[in-house]
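To whoever is on call:

I kicked off a structure prediction for a single chain this morning and the downstream step that reads the tokens threw a length-mismatch warning. I double-checked the sequence; it's 127 residues and nothing unusual in it as far as I can see. Pasting both halves so you can look.
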Amino acid sequence: MTENEITERIIGCAIKVHKNLGPGLLESAYQECLFYELKNSGLTVEKEKPLPLIYEEVKLDCGYRLDLLVENKVIVEIKSVEALNEIHLAQILTYLKLNDSKIGLLINFNVLQLVKGVKRVINKYKN
């Protein structure tokens, strides 16, 4: 399955969760429900996957965690904030680089229409 096919399915599942729950809940609620929907759709999903930081020869277990990793290819970072800003984008770009992933989705569930809260992010340093 390609990254594009995976992201389409993730967005579809996220829309279903948003339609059922609406905006205004905690990120953890959306994460659990999206995890459930993705698993039920047949995708392989890891939740709260540890992400070590490797600096030169030192591996640091700093407590970074990916909200969701789908099909071992697409990182999903879930937010429930008034608006996405540059630090949220920088965070997912850093996660993409550290995990050596190409595609990520930054999803803000705290919007009236979920399509306005979805940002597809590409790691331009990954082939």
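Update from on-call: the warning came from a stale cache, not from the record. Cleared it. Sanity check on the structure: Helices lie at 3-21, 27-40, 86-99.
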